[in-house]
Amino acid sequence: MQATQHVQVVPYLNQLPSPPQHHRPGLVPFAWGAGNFGQLGMGADALGDFSKPKKNAWAIKQMENDVFGDDNGGIESVVAGGIPDRENPGSFLSVDDLSAVPHPLQSLVDEGFRAVKAASGDNICAAVSDKGELRVWGSFRANEGSLGFSSGLRHQFKPVPILELSRRPGDFERVSSIAAGDNHLLVLTTHRHIYSWGAGEDYELGRRVLERHKIHGTVPEKVILGTQTRKATLVGAGNFHSFAVDETGDVWGWGLNSMGQTGTGYASSEDSVVQLPKKIQRLSKQMLGNDSVIQIAGGYHHTLFLLKSGKVYSCGRSDSGQLVLPADHPTFNDRTHPDFVSEPVLVSFPDPGDPVVQISCGVHNNSAVTRGGALYSWGQGIQGELGLGDKKEAETPQLVVRKDGGSWFAAAISCGGQHSIGLFRSKK
């Protein structure tokens, strides 16, 4: 009888995360931007800034020795975190201070934790297994200093479970997806619930956290999208703002909105924060029709939305090319605020026939991968995080990896605090 209770009988509304495709030849990590803390994972001889993608020679050697899987297996996915802090763990493959190359988190290896999703903020990290198990480590910070991890701990140096979900005979709630801001986490479950925790000073948790009880923010609590009955199918986060898509396809934003980054509009200074989840009217089902948002990525003051069709919308700060909007774009003709766009605007890419399949945001920079394997970059990157050589600012998408010709196919991208990491596949 006990064994039967642990069998999932009720169908999941949101599916468990599944392992990425096993590419052959394997995916090779390339890195660019600031590497002063070893965040590029390329060894002690690569701790400077790189303005163009640099192949990870260490990873190539591991692939040749079948360390990542038989038959020249490579890296499956990558997540770049925020500004590194030596007092706290780094990313899922954390960087050793002595060797500055990736190494596995042994405690997860020992428990047979098959990670398929990961998220990383400035000092907080999380991973989800193919069984929907969650592990979290690191520490949260508030404006005045450390908030700690949870339950009185200042730091959590090894991955641990932290979220208690419902468990009923034949129906065990699991984790489906995660997203991280600088100092907050969002978790989406198989039952379409959202949990948030971390720093809540800018309402990025979707609830009010009293100043004298900030530590309460480190306890996971549910996020309500208007009503208790409305369920979620997707979550996303910027540095200090958060998002969700509900089961009807409507998109919700909350948190810091000082430059319109939640996409919910900005009429006065009272809109500088969105305290509770609010619908983004420009991305409603009525506006998008049969299209829908499938990924949301945010930076410090801006946000990108990727649609199923491959279209991209942007909103927020626009003074350094963050929004893919040229200076003569029509939206600038009638806007009230000269430095930002408060509702999502459809943006264009150089090749309309090659739709975007993945987006990522850094602090003030962005990247996008297309179906054909092209990689674009734009925004501001003063430490080489654009991957465009000496070019430190681009207001329109610039090619980092081209679709036609060349030696590499871009498969994935992750923009961190001052660095970016891409996964490329050889065309040879």
Q: How do the strands line up in the largest sheet? A: 2-1-30-29
Distance between the termini: 55 Å
Radius of gyration (CA) equals 21 Å
The structural class is mainly beta
* Amount of beta strand: 35-45%
Helix share bin:
under 10%
State the total count of DSSP E strands: 30
Give the low-confidence spans. Answer: 86-98
User: How does the major sheet shape up?
Assistant: 4 strands, antiparallel
RCC repeats: 132-191, 192-248, 249-309, 310-372, 373-426
GO cellular component, one term: cytoplasm
GO molecular function, one term: guanyl-nucleotide exchange factor activity
Protein name: RCC1-like domain-containing protein
Provide an overview of this structure.
- With 428 residues, this protein is mainly β.
- It has helices at 2-5, 57-64, 106-110, 285-288, and strands spanning 28-34, 49-55, 94-95, 102-103, 115-120, 124-129, 134-138, 140-142, 145-148, 156-160, 167-168, 171-172, 175-180, 184-189, 194-198, 221-223, 232-237, 241-246, 251-256, 273-279, 293-298, 302-307, 312-317, 340-347, 356-361, 365-370, 375-380, 393-401, 408-415, 419-426.
- It has a four-stranded antiparallel beta sheet with strand order 2-1-30-29. A four-stranded antiparallel beta sheet has the order 5-6-7-10, with no helix packed on it.
- β8 and β9 (145-148) form a beta hairpin.
- The longest helix is centred in the N-terminal third of the chain and has 8 residues, at 57-64.
- One of its GO terms (cellular component) is cytoplasm.
- Keywords: Guanine-nucleotide releasing factor, Repeat.
